[in-house]
Design goal:
The chain folds into two domains: about 35 residues; about 130 residues, Sandwich (Jelly Rolls). Helix content is about 20%, strand content about 45%. Strands 1, 2, 3, 4, 5, 6, 7, 8 and 9 form a nine-stranded mixed beta sheet that branches. It is elongated and about 90 Å long. The termini are far apart.
Amino acid sequence: MTKMGFLRGVINTISTNISTLLTNLATVRTEQTLQQQADAVISQNNPVSNQLYTVLDTTTNVEIISFGCSVNWDTTQPTNLRVIVTVDGITKTFTCASPVTATGYVPSLNNSFAASDQFLVASASPTVASFASYRECSGRSVKVQVAVTWSTTQPTPLICRVKYANR
């Protein structure tokens, strides 16, 4: 084998190794990058009073981008609308005491209140909620549920949408 042939072989080997290394680095970066997922949505007709409906089942490495909910009703106003978010084993409950029919609600985090006593506030757009509200709902393990309390069950949709990303 000539020196030139030997050098071409070495160059080809180095080139192949660099290509493999770049492919592996791209894979590692992708594994560490948040990937936006399809929205988790529930539209529950005739929701049972106080029953928890799962919107986003337990998912790992989640960053909540936004969430919002609403309930439509005709005659009997529910006493509360709740979104329950379990993050790394800690439950945060966001509540609206007397939701207005067909109005969207988003989280409002108040750090001086207990995790079980957070609020949902009326909003035409989920962007009204503070970034901190969503950051506090992100973690290694996240589950989102929604519930409504009725004095009388009536035909109505209970709707909740979660926008999220995960690794």
